[in-house]
Design brief:
3 domains, disordered C terminus, 4-stranded parallel beta sheet, binds flavin mononucleotide, 8 strands, 437 residues, 18 helices, de novo design (two linked rop proteins)
């Protein structure tokens, strides 16, 4: 059941299992917007609605979806649309729920976005571990083909769209948009040098629009109700609702759909129930494990792209991981660095060497072999990683590690001094919270 404090737009009717079927989805008005768009709208009208809505990408960078679609060149060449369903960042599990509960909303969004991008081929790149969701999507795509919403001559409108669900092989780096393209082409998933950006030269060298599952799931509602309706939710710079994944040291972890701009405290304490009785929040990642951690002093900030940015962090994929007072921040930093080191593709030196070196230094910290001066060196190395990598995987480690060392320096110094202190493990989430491995 939805919490009354939520604003459910994407997750509306999500509790109804029939929503997964095409009949159930159509029962709630599904595919009416696709019919309207294909029968009555020109490419530029769809594009304008998306641009005017101010919809920002929900996969991490928060770039304007409509603007990105408008970057694709016009002309007869083959163009592509890729839906990024890789969702491998620790803390993020909202795309899984959107695909599992409402696969047709995503398919309808892809078909309408393909109209805006003039793409004839679309792919859903889904992380390999999401086998159940991939099966659900396969079944839904087959139903959409059967109903004439995909394939050749859609609804007799002389437009074609082929949609393929492609299962990844389980590498976090394949969520990076250009690595995703290489993986789709059958190569090892390594990031490409940018520019050229995918909108100009992407899949098989053709112009390609890449968007996240949640971004594309917003498209039918925006085109159905108009940009002004969408802007009625959220803030001026962060319009719309957001499905926020909340995990870690809270009583009710889960996905909650809220208007952007809601106080962060309302998300963590109101919806997710706050920390376990007798415990307090020590820190939280506001936008997945790649976002610089914030402290309880920042709990009253609005949960929006702009407020998180102004606080020196980011909204990212919209995934909050809470660390309570039982979590050792130096161990959480080490756990974070180990993840990114393991997932680094090794193509560029700052990331390959920087993540490796940071893990080794943080291991020295928790073993009590480091000196306080090493903390300065760790911080300065993170600054040399940020902005110097082929993609932002290296930054994704350096930003949170740097924030942890700077904001919790006393604790790092204490851990060095008292090496061997017992490490508390929060029940149920030791891995996510940085327990010693
Ligand atoms: C290492 C890495 C992993 C990423 N993983 C994902 C992912 O799993 N899903 C996603 O949508 N975006 C991911 N991104 C961001 C994508 O590169 C890209 O910005 C996004 O898919 C664009 O969609 P949007 O504009 O709708 O947010 C990742 C980026 C990096 C650097």
């Amino acid at each position: 059941m939805a919490d009354p404090r939520e604003t459910r737009v994407l997750l509306e009717h999500a509790e109804d299992p029939a929503l997964r079927t095409i009949d159930g989805y159509r029962g709630y008005g599904g595919y009416a917007t696709l019919e309207k768009a294909y029968r009555e709208m020109e490419q530029d009208e769809v594009l304008k609605e998306l641009e005017d809505s101010g919809l920002r990408g929900r996969g991490g960078a928060g770039f304007s979806m409509g603007k990105k679609a408008s970057f694709l060149p016009r002309g007869e060449m083959a163009k592509y649309l890729c839906c990024n369903a890789d969702e491998s960042e620790p803390g993020a599990f909202k795309d899984r729920e959107l695909m599992q509960r409402n696969p047709h909303q995503l398919i309808e969004g892809i078909a309408i976005a393909a109209l805006a991008a003039d793409a004839g081929h679309a792919f859903i790149f889904i992380r390999g571990e999401y086998a159940e969701q991939a099966d659900i999507l396969d079944a839904a795509v087959a139903e959409a083909y059967e109903a004439g919403y995909l394939g050749k001559d859609i609804l007799g409108c002389r437009r074609d769209l082929e949609l393929v669900v492609h299962r990844g092989a389980g590498a976090y780096i394949c969520g990076e948009e250009t690595a995703l393209l290489d993986a789709l082409e059958g190569k090892r998933g390594n990031p490409r040098l940018k520019p050229p950006f995918p909108a100009v030269q992407g899949l098989y060298g053709g112009p390609t629009l890449i968007n996240n599952v949640e971004t594309l799931s917003n498209v039918p509602k925006i085109v159905a109700n108009g940009a002004e309706w969408f802007k009625g939710f959220g803030t001026e710079q962060s319009p719309g609702t957001k499905v926020v994944s909340i995990s870690g040291g809270v009583r009710r972890p889960g996905n909650y759909e809220v208007e952007l701009g809601i106080p962060t405290r309302e998300l963590i304490f109101g919806l997710a129930g706050g920390p376990e009785p007798g415990h307090e929040i020590k820190a939280f990642y506001p936008g997945g494990s790649s976002s610089p951690v914030l402290t309880p002093a920042e709990l009253d900030l609005p949960y929006s792209f702009e407020a998180m940015g102004e606080a020196g962090s980011m909204l990212g994929s919209g995934s909050i991981i809470v660390a309570d007072d039982r979590v050792s921040i130096p161990h959480m930093a080490l756990r974070t660095a180990r993840f990114y080191h393991h997932e680094s593709c090794g193509k560029c030196a700052p990331c390959r060497e920087g993540t490796n070196w940071t893990v080794k230094m943080l291991e020295r910290v928790v073993r009590g072999e480091a000196t306080p001066m090493d903390l300065d060196i760790i911080s300065s190395v993170q600054q040399n990683i940020i902005g110097h990598c082929l993609c932002v995987l290296g930054d994704s480690m350096a930003m949170p590690v740097s924030a942890m060392v700077n904001k919790f320096r006393d604790e790092f110094e204490r851990v060095i001094a008292e090496a061997g202190m017992p490490i508390a493990i929060v029940q149920g989430a030791p891995e996510a919270l940085g327990a010693a491995t």
